[in-house]
Design goal:
By secondary structure, this protein is α/β, with parallel strands linked by helices. Helix content is 39%, strand content 22%. It has a 5-stranded mixed β-sheet. Strand 6 and strand 7 form a beta hairpin. Helix 1 packs across helix 2 and helix 5 packs antiparallel against helix 8.
Length: 318
């Protein structure tokens, strides 16, 4: 049996055909070009979905169901109630996708993108076998998905699991969600870049200036690369950033005590440079100090495929 998994992101729309063994058989993608109308975006979603099916050597008759991960809040009727990064408000995603792909609505599944990534990692990636699992994605924002007893935690209003919008600094940095001091405003790749630029202004002799010039921009790697070269400003940025990330992780551990928390997104490519200090902070500040069983903090395995695979298996777990 085959299904389509779609990842609707702020930068790209990606669709893949996935089989029962969680293997990707065909893929297509296109830029999201947001902001623009939901109708235009869903036209492109349908196009890349059909292209992915063709790339897999199949037809839509071979597709059992279609799953899509999207930023924002998705209700039980497949309506994207709110997605701030896409300027979506009450978009009937399930209906729009069903019409464009000529599939019944009961074969279309829409879910938050971070929840899809968590589902993918829980079933096919680093969390395989863990019934209680949290995935955190450090990207443009801080996405998160919570799996309890093998099921996605949506909450009473289908907005559960938005851990990126728990406040870690009261009256802190402005977040795009409207609140101040959210974890996302301090631990996202966007936040890291902002923190790096601020440090560069304070340290005009920092090697980060040269690194940014070589790359053509300030990125999430700039401070980490400078830190590895012994740059004082780079070290300060990285140390502070890791403390912010760790603060949110400790909150999750203390609140949920999951078997595994995996870290995904571009920043996780720093590997043990990121993971080791995060584990030290969690070890030092967790509430369950005497428990022999502790939450594992690990790097995500599936990369950009996590959301795709998770979306593709929505029909099996919903």
């Amino acid at each position: 049996m085959y299904s389509i998994g779609i990842d609707l992101g702020g930068t790209n729309i990606v669709a893949s055909v996935v089989d029962d063994d969680y293997e990707i058989k065909g893929t297509s993608k296109t830029p999201t070009n947001s902001p623009r109308s939901a109708e235009e975006i869903f036209d492109d979603i349908a196009t890349v979905s059909l292209e992915a099916v063709k790339a897999a050597g199949l037809t839509m008759d071979d597709i059992a169901y279609v799953g899509m991960g999207t930023p924002g809040t998705v209700n039980a009727d497949g309506i994207i109630e709110f997605a701030n990064n896409l300027a979506f408000n009450n978009v009937p995603a399930r209906k729009m996708l069903a019409e464009r792909l000529s599939k019944p609505e009961d074969k279309i599944f829409i879910e938050n993108d971070a929840n899809c990534a968590a589902l993918g990692e829980a079933y096919a990636g680093v969390g395989n076998g863990a019934k209680d699992f949290v995935a955190v994605t450090l990207g443009t924002g801080v996405g998160s998905g919570i799996i309890v007893d093998g099921k996605i935690v949506n909450g009473v209003n289908f907005a559960g699991g938005e851990c990126g919008h728990m406040v870690i600094v009261v009256d802190g940095e402005q977040c795009s969600c409207g609140r101040k001091g959210c974890w996302e405003a301090y631990a996202s790749a966007t936040a890291l870049i902002r923190q790096t630029k601020k440090a560069m202004e304070e340290y005009p002799d920092s090697i980060m200036h040269k690194l940014a010039e070589q790359e053509g921009k300030v990125s999430g790697r700039t401070a980490f690369d400078a830190m590895r070269l012994g740059d004082i400003a780079g070290i300060k940025v990285v140390d502070t950033y890791i403390k912010y990330v760790a603060c949110g992780l400790i909150n999750l551990v203390n609140a949920l005590q999951p078997e595994v928390i995996c870290i995904g997104g571009g920043i996780c490519n720093e590997g043990e440079t990121l993971m080791k200090p995060l584990r030290r902070f969690v070890q030092a500040e967790r509430y369950s100090i005497h428990s022999k069983i502790q939450t594992k903090i690990v790097k995500a395995e599936l990369g950009n495929d996590a959301g795709i695979i998770g979306a593709a298996i929505l029909g099996k777990v919903k």
